[in-house]
Amino acid sequence: MARILCQFYNPATRIPVFHRSRQTGVSLIELLVVCLTIGILVQLAIPSFQVLSDRTKRNATTRLLITDLNWARTEALANSTRLYLCPGQNSDRCRSNTDWSQGWSVFSDQNHNGQLEPSELLLVRTLALNNSIFVRFRKPGYLFYKNDGSAWPNGTFKICTAGSKVPPLLVIVYRTGRTRTSTGTDLECIQKQI
Q1: Where are the domains of the chain?
Q2: What distance in Å separates the CA atoms of residue 82 and residue 19, rounded to the nearest whole number?
Q3: Long-range contact list for 75-80, CB < 8 A, 24+ apart?
Q4: I want to staple 80 with a disulfide (CB 3.0 to 4.6 A). Which of 25, 56, 126, 147 is the partner?
Q5: Intervals of the chain under pLDDT 50
Q6: 49-183 in CATH: which number?
């Protein structure tokens, strides 16, 4: 046994070397098999990337909405004023529209009439991030923060992606003005006007 090991580890022992022929490369069949394998892997990965992209868009819209809600609450407390959040870009009148998909506006409502007067200040106008994101809120469709930080009306924003397998995200606004998120695993997204 010792003799075999010595012979195996002996540097003077010649190890046979296998030489390739002078022509190197891949055959057409090998190239087709590799291309077919890559194609199948790409076809399997595309739906996963689409779901990931939809989830990222939904999460970005949710973070932006929560940021604006928290900012409006903080400003209402700091300035002791009433701040309205209205759907859409035309905030001169808070409609009873429940669709917030085209963005939202925040303005200071000094006379408590729910519309932006020339003497009042438009603070934030947020544009829609993506056409495939749907944001819905309950009726009356607007939300305002009082000077004590409380919100009226309380409710739930539902944030959905169009035609996706991604479940909706819910942004829940409490009467105290605080917000939290929740996942709606068994909820469906309805893209029609509510």
Answers
A1: 49-183
A2: 84
A3: 75/123, 76/145, 76/146, 76/147, 76/149, 77/145, 77/147, 77/148, 77/149, 79/108, 79/147, 80/147
A4: 147
A5: 1, 192-194
A6: 3.55.40.10
